[in-house]
């Protein structure tokens, strides 16, 4: 009888552990990662690929490697990044906390691993760089596209923002021409480049030199410039223009330099 009760208890515990986790589909996972700001949107498909390769997108997955080490959760995080039974490791987190369906701690630790451990290569199972193709890009567009997700500025709207940020009306035609050809006036445009940097926002500012992903940095000391509010993008672009001139943007040289500039004479912006 005692053995039967023990068996029942073990079954109940197993059932509880199964229901405490969640297996994500690709689009809900992409949205969750984006809402937790794991990285720029241009790399979320890479994260989705990594997660599926590591855990099958199962938040409750635990993989026992040996007597001394196990991998936990949707990112399969292990020592030395976390500690078993208590907070610790480089993430100062308890490994077992990665086994629930709240991804907040998982994402915070994954970002630390990415930044300190050599990017995606920190995960031994990483085989996704070549696999992220047009299909993945289309998936991200379908997952993340939503009304109001990004803003396409009109010429006059951008002129107003340029005036508010101290750019003289004399030069606004150059800035608007630049934005039209770099981003189509799309404030949230992100373009991933082969060197693993990205160009961000309405002026397509590069993360290698001028800003950083997920933290402040670069020559502008700013992060993630692809937002509806273009204030920081304008401020960083002013720094670029002051240090390098408009020639820093290849498309300005090709499409704007010595060419007819956009007509903003009917806009109400002053400056």
From TrEMBL:
UniProt keyword annotations, A-Z: Antimicrobial, Bacteriolytic enzyme, Disulfide bond, Glycosidase, Hydrolase
An example Gene Ontology biological process: killing of cells of another organism
Gene Ontology molecular function terms on file: lysozyme activity
EC number: 3.2.1.17
Keyword set includes Hydrolase: yes
Disulfide bond recorded as keyword: yes
Residues in Glycosyl hydrolases family 22 (GH22) domain copies: 91-109
Gene3D superfamilies tied to this protein: 1.10.530.10
Reactions it catalyzes: Hydrolysis of (1->4)-beta-linkages between N-acetylmuramic acid and N-acetyl-D-glucosamine residues in a peptidoglycan and between N-acetyl-D-glucosamine residues in chitodextrins
UniProt family annotation: Belongs to the glycosyl hydrolase 22 family.
UniProt-recorded name of the protein: lysozyme
Organism: Anopheles albimanus (New world malaria mosquito)
